[in-house]
Amino acid sequence: MMCSCCERKVMIWSLCFIFCLSNSILVFASPDKHLCRPDQRDALWEFKREFYVKGFHSNGVAADKKTKRWTNNTDCCSWDGISCDPKTGNIVELDLLSSSLNGPLRSNSSLFRLQHLQSLDLGYNNLSGILPDSIGNLKYLRVLNLGGCHFHGKIPSSLGNLSYLTGLDLSINDFNGELPDSMDNLNQLTELRLGSTKLSGNFPSMLLNLSELTLIDLASNQFEGMLPSNMSRLSKLESFSVAGNSFYGSFPSSLFMIPSLFYLSLGSNDFSGTLEIGNISSPSTLGFLSLVENNFNGPIPRSISKLVGLFYLDLALWNTERSIVDFSIFLQLKSLTFLDLSYINTRSMVDLSLFSHFDSLGYLDLSGINLKISSSLHLLPHIGILTLSSCNIVEFPKFLKTKTSLSYLDISANQIEGQVPEWLWRLPMLRYANISQNFFSGFEGSADIIQRSQIVLIDISSNRFQDPLPLLPNSTKFFLGSSNGFSGKIPRTICELRFLDTLILSNNNFNGSIPRCFEKFNTKLSVLHLRNNSLSGIFPEESISDHLRSLDVGSNQLSGELPKSLINCTRLEFLNVDDNKIKDTFPFWLRLLPNLEVLVLRSNEFHGPISSPGVSLSFPKLRIFDISDNRFIGVLPLDYFAGWGAMSSVLDTVDRMPSRFEGRDSGNYRNSVSMTAKGLKMELVGSGFTIYKTIDVSGNRFEGDIPVSISFLKELIVLNMSNNAFTGRIPPSLANLSNLQSLDLSQNGLSGEIPPELGKLTFLAWMNFSYNNLEGPIPQGTQIQSQNISSFAENLGLCGAPLQKTCGGKEEEATEQEEDEEKEEKDQVLSWIAAAIGYVPGVFCGLIIGHIFSSYKHDWFMRIFHYLT
Ligand SMILES: *[C@@H]1O[C@H](CO)[C@@H](O)[C@H](O)[C@H]1NC(C)=O
Ligand SMILES: *[C@@H]1O[C@H](CO)[C@@H](O)[C@H](O)[C@H]1NC(C)=O
Ligand SMILES: *[C@@H]1O[C@H](CO)[C@@H](O)[C@H](O)[C@H]1NC(C)=O
Ligand SMILES: *[C@@H]1O[C@H](CO)[C@@H](O)[C@H](O)[C@H]1NC(C)=O
Ligand SMILES: *[C@@H]1O[C@H](CO)[C@@H](O)[C@H](O)[C@H]1NC(C)=O
Ligand SMILES: *[C@@H]1O[C@H](CO)[C@@H](O)[C@H](O)[C@H]1NC(C)=O
Ligand SMILES: *[C@@H]1O[C@H](CO)[C@@H](O)[C@H](O)[C@H]1NC(C)=O
Ligand SMILES: *[C@@H]1O[C@H](CO)[C@@H](O)[C@H](O)[C@H]1NC(C)=O
Ligand SMILES: *[C@@H]1O[C@H](CO)[C@@H](O)[C@H](O)[C@H]1NC(C)=O
Ligand SMILES: *[C@@H]1O[C@H](CO)[C@@H](O)[C@H](O)[C@H]1NC(C)=O
Ligand SMILES: *[C@@H]1O[C@H](CO)[C@@H](O)[C@H](O)[C@H]1NC(C)=O
């Protein structure tokens, strides 16, 4: 991808150069000599008008760039982006790359009248709709570029009629389905670019017949299955990329046998087994090899040392199964500039001096490998990005002192003690420093030492820092300092950091008030986490910047009202103020925040009703709503939950998962929320956090019926309405909440029967109906029957299993059968408990765990900490 991007840049640059040149020549060309054929000029003129954006420019000039300079009374062969055959006057080339063409390409488009086109480039325009079959009429095409448009639907099989085609670029579109079989006619094709196009199906084996191919790019699609074993028929192949698909099985070693192969990118698939590189001819031309994020296991093949041309090697997450890795196999690869061996699961200890042979390394990631670092200063002279996370390092690596090109340093999750050396901040290129999860206790040197650097991101969280916060330079965008022992007031100097985007100071001992300055200075502040400190005073309006996406000030002693200035934070997604002393009525105005996903007001002094006549609360994206333990009152209208879209339908949160390299230059923070589910308190982080959908209104004084609209929220996983004054019956429609895993209706005044329909909820692992006025038989159904007796305690007249009390005569007839069922259920409870002891959340949320496994390769973790309340 990187390569094609650069290529594209070079291409754009050279095209621009050529056109600037040809334009300047044309100034001197004779205006009399009209080459252009009138019918083709008219076709061009019409084509331009097909994409005219009506109302965009009142004077009738199209909104695009190149076509803007087309004029009627000049030779169309001289127009921007047009080339003609000098003999016949036919237009043979149309290049409107990135020309703001906007709209569908219709099958009757005048484009298809330019029958003699040999090269057509409409890349990077907004050409929506389906790619019409008529494209097959341009039968002399050699080069076709439609990349970076918005085409969708199937790739038309008429493409197979373009038998002169040598270059085809359809990448970055929304095509779907498989490649048409007709493409096996394109036997002159040399470059096929289909990256990021949403294509699916097996590897298109007809490509093996296109023996002229030098480049195949199928990256970032939805292809699956195994690759054909004999790929050496593609004997001219130079570049092969299938990264980011779901290919599995062993990787065909025949590819390594292709002598011209230079670029091989297989990352983020499910290839498995050991890798056979085979008996390659030496010297190998392979320069780029990425195998990251697959299921390769076993030893790293020794023959990798024959790939002496490699400059880029990514083996991250290869599973060597805790075996010993002989790192000397890499010593032959002297041209490497990029080497990623992170998390290869070895128990070997490596002496970093082994890497002193790699003079050109600019990128090195050895995370997860036990490292021994000798103090040689001659290591890695040109290193720019160095990641040594979780390497069991105990001392700050001194050899870095002379690394004047180092811009990114991650030595997080080691056991380094003492002070952060002063010289670190003097490294002239250093912009990113992650020293989190160590035992650092202070900063060496004067107080302003960091301030003199040009650092952009500092992560010092989870250390033992105690001093007041260090002074930071104006360049700081991301400061992560949570879980240390910082104390005193949050210094006002932090307000002067005009580019600050993320400030995380949770879990420290800060006291005093929240600085009243973010509104004024840090207008770009988007993440402010001050959770779990000893901040007091009112929650100031002036602490809110309009750009906030995530605000967490929970577990402090803040008082006063919720700042109204939040109303201007239209990007706000996450708002957590739990466990403070905020005294306010329900913030109805929050409904104006279209992106709000999480609202936690738990354990404060909020009061009054949460509904208001004439105000319809609709939270289209809200997933977590926790207003428990406040003093809210009133009856909830029947339609209260009607507009809560995110909880009533599946939203694709998977798309938002960060890829492996995201976060390298951003404040990689995690929102987290603690909640009570299944009688347990747990903390949700990562993907657990993004898929949980919960409503907790417990511990208030709500009365009246449970609003039936709750049953619209089909995606709800946890519902807690306990400890209120709800009356009436339990709505049978609760059975619509088919994803529900935890239901707590205890300590209310509910009456009538437990609706038998609830027995159908198969995921409902935990429920509590105790302390109500319920009566009648407890419904059948494995989940209900396996509850602890205490879940039904203190009611008027519940009867039947699992209670001892029988429901009159009927019970006895069925005893025998039920005894069997009961035994089965008991077994189930037992195994449930056994599993719970091993891995409590696992049992609870089989679904969620499945999700995590499937999304592990996106580097997305969920950790659930739990303890019994
Ligand atoms: C240019 O010529 C075409 C076809 O002859 C005509 O439809 C169009 O109106 C002309 N445009 C201008 C700006 O003269
Ligand atoms: C692209 O085209 C689509 C459909 O024609 C339109 O909805 C969208 O606004 C366009 N995008 C841009 C950036 O012009
Ligand atoms: C092309 O077809 C569309 C409908 O598909 C029609 O609206 C348009 O007028 C046609 N254009 C020409 C030039 O025939
Ligand atoms: C290719 O062209 C031939 C004749 O020009 C036509 O009959 C055929 O349908 C075309 N094939 C495709 C796949 O469009
Ligand atoms: C490849 O070409 C051969 C001979 O032309 C043909 O028999 C075979 O079906 C083709 N394979 C594919 C996958 O198109
Ligand atoms: C693979 O294809 C090549 C070239 O077509 C052929 O020489 C070779 O025998 C094939 N190998 C296997 C194992 O089919
Ligand atoms: C590998 O190739 C070399 C020469 O190209 C040959 O001498 C050797 O026997 C081959 N090894 C194997 C295992 O095929
Ligand atoms: C940082 O910005 C502030 C306010 O704009 C300015 O007063 C200060 O001099 C700057 N500091 C440095 C080190 O540039
Ligand atoms: C804040 O903490 C500092 C040191 O921890 C202490 O000296 C000071 O009295 C505290 N201030 C308040 C208002 O509690
Ligand atoms: C929201 O922003 C506008 C314009 O900046 C401002 O006038 C208004 O007072 C702000 N509202 C609140 C509640 O702060
Ligand atoms: C710093 O490293 C830790 C541990 O490896 C990681 O969890 C955290 O996301 C990193 N910080 C940033 C800002 O990337």
TrEMBL record:
Predominant location: membrane
Pfam families tied to this protein: LRR_1, LRR_14, LRR_8, LRRNT_2
Record domain Leucine-rich repeat-containing N-terminal plant-type: where: 38-85
GO cellular component: plasma membrane
Signal sequence range: 1-29
Transmembrane segments: 829-853
Protein's name according to its UniProt entry: Leucine-rich repeat-containing N-terminal plant-type domain-containing protein
Species assigned in the record: Eutrema salsugineum (Saltwater cress)
